[in-house]
Amino acid sequence: MIHLYFFLIGTVFASFLGLVIDRFPEHSIITPASHCNACGKRLAPRDLIPIFSQVMNRFRCRFCGDQIPLRYLLFECILGGLFLATSLGTISIGQLLLLTMGLTLAIYDQREQQYPLMVWLFFQFSLMMTASVNPLMLFFLALGLLAFFYDLRIGAGDFLFLASCSAIFSLTEILILIQIASSSGLACFCFKKKKTGWHLYPVFCLVLW
Length: 209
Known about the structure:
The chain is mostly helical. It has two domains: 1-91, no CATH class; 93-209, no CATH class. The protein has nine helices and no strands. The chain has helices at 2-23, 52-56, 70-87, 93-112, 117-128, 135-149, 156-165, 171-191, 201-208.
């Protein structure tokens, strides 16, 4: 029973994070109440039950019929699964926080091409409750700060994420993560039809998974 409880908590947290991703930082995450982005109709409690409401409404708004993106269901299922894995002892709380942060910020990066510092800080402070500050973390934090002011060819978000990874992984594991992510990202870039800039951070998250 406790495992089911953890899964449900994960889906509820994912539903809240989905709202944060949709609204922050342009809009308030408190007001207005949850509503359909297409028709503006306020959602009832029956429309806000994670996973269940989307399936029952056939992935459409109950009022206007506008289609609800599948990413919300996937996000809730994945986070529910991660919370379940934590309750089963498969992953630690620190790993849960890191994976949740990685997934949330990767969605931000892919959708908005931005890295909301406040969201990273929330997860980082939560992560620090399960780990202590170490020299490797301070090193990546310093690089992240420099990247805000100077062009280091790698974004500040990449360094900040590596700083978070340093709370759990060793230097050797971090170097392996960087090598695999860089190689994978370069391969994806080579196969892109339009040769534009690419972001390393989502690749870090994919490799971490």
